[in-house]
Amino acid sequence: MPTPVPAAAPHARPAILLMLAAVAAFSLMDAGLKALSAHYPPLEVAALRSLSSLPWLLGWALASGGLRALRPVRWPLHLLRGALGVLMMASFVYALRRLPLSTAYAIFFVAPLLITALSVPLLGERVGPRRWTAIAIGLLGVLVVLRPSGAGMFSLAGLAVLLAAGGYALSAISVRVLARTDSTQAITFWVMLLMAAGAGALALPGWVALRGEHVALVLGIGIAGALGQYAITEAFRRGEASLIAPLEYTALVWGVGLDLAVWGVLPDAGTWAGAAIIIASGLYLLRRERVHAEAEHP
Predict the structure, then answer these.
(1) Three-state secondary structure of the chain
(2) Rounded to an integer, what distance in angstroms lies between the CA atom of residue 86 and that of residue 171?
(3) Tell me: the pLDDT tens digits for 154-188?
(4) Which residue among 138, 213, 231, 298 has its CA within the 20 to 30 Å range from the CA of 13?
(5) What is the percent of the chain where pLDDT is above 70?
(6) Residues 99-138: pLDDT tens digits?
(7) Measured over all CA atoms, what is the biggest interatomic distance in the chain, rounded to whole angstroms?
(8) What separation, in Å, do the N-terminal and C-terminal C-alpha atoms of the chain show?
């Protein structure tokens, strides 16, 4: 019989559910990006991902808040998120072309650890010694995945995932700051528009015409990306970054399943070992956050 886990405070449950939904949507989107990456340059795929999500996000924003909800307040932070988004997406697409989805996810798991660590100096959140220990153990697991041999630290694909993870962590932290003044509609719409414009401009010199058989795939990427973007923005708006960040680890389940179903591959022993360490530390981190939330809000 499984050991009961202390329940999260009631106000944290919506953030947890939104984060799980975001991970599922982004995993399906990433599978589509990996399929596209075999035929188009990384910057073009990044631009297509953003462009395909824009109509859905704009329609939702206008229906839920009107034009006033799209008004940006902190322009510098929006521009920063747009630049980070282009860097993150292009780097990750480059890596997906060369790595299994599950391996890329295992390396990318450094991002939630970075978010939890950065939430202290940048957001003023409290992370106790037990949680710092969990973060350190998780980083050890990342090093196991990023071993010097094979598809790891010293491959361009592995470095590209690390670059994407750093961009993602900073972007996620910026959401918590933007949420103090800007609406969810503005946060999600402007990052997509800026990513589409930035990646599109950079990809224009080497643009490859979109083939007819890939139109449906691009549309699916847009829908999944729009749903994921909304869900993750709301998750970070409603919950502490150090609480919901470890839920990123559920992406490994999606990555392994999609790798096996679509590409017929499974992670190697090193990836399994490193991912197990990271997930264990993440689950412990989540448990400590739940205990902390329960103590503050019985």
Answers:
(1) CCCCCCCCCHHHHHHHHHHHHHHHHHHHHHHHHHHHHCCCCHHHHHHHHHHHHHHHHHHHHHHHCHHHHCCCCCHHHHHHHHHHHHHHHHHHHHHHCCCCHHHHHHHHCHHHHHHHHHHHHHHCCCCCHHHHHHHHHHHHHHHHHCCCCCCCCCCHHHHHHHHHHHHHHHHHHHHHHHCCCCCHHHHHHHHHHHHHHHHHHHHHHHCCCCCHHHHHHHHHHHHHHHHHHHHHHHHHHHCCHHHHHHHHHHHHHHHHHHHHHHHCCCCCHHHHHHHHHHHHHHHHHHHHHHHHHHHHCC
(2) 11
(3) 578 888 998 999 898 899 888 888 888 898 889 88
(4) 138
(5) 89
(6) 999 989 988 887 777 887 888 888 777 777 888 888 888 8
(7) 59
(8) 25
Q: How far is CA 19 from the centre of its chain?
A: 10
Identity (one letter) of the amino acid at 44? Answer: E
Quote the CA–CA distance of 60 and 54 in Å, as a whole number: 10
b/e per residue 177-189 (b: at least 16 CB within 10 A): ebbeebbbbbbbb
CA-CA distance, 215 to 32, in Å (whole number)?
11
Q: How far apart, in whole angstroms, are the C-alpha atoms of residue 82 and residue 125?
A: 25
Alpha-carbon distance of 68 to 185, in angstroms, equals 10
Write out the two tokens for 288: 């400590």
**What pLDDT score does 294 carry?**
63
- Classified as helix, coil or strand, 125 is coil
The whole model's pTM is what? 0.82
CB atoms within 10 A of CB 68: 9
- Which has the closest alpha carbon to 97: 164, 147, 51, 52? 164
Q: Is the confidence at residue 4, as pLDDT, over 50?
A: no
**Residues in Cβ contact with 88 at an 8 Å cutoff, skipping those fewer than 6 apart:** 163, 164, 167, 168, 171
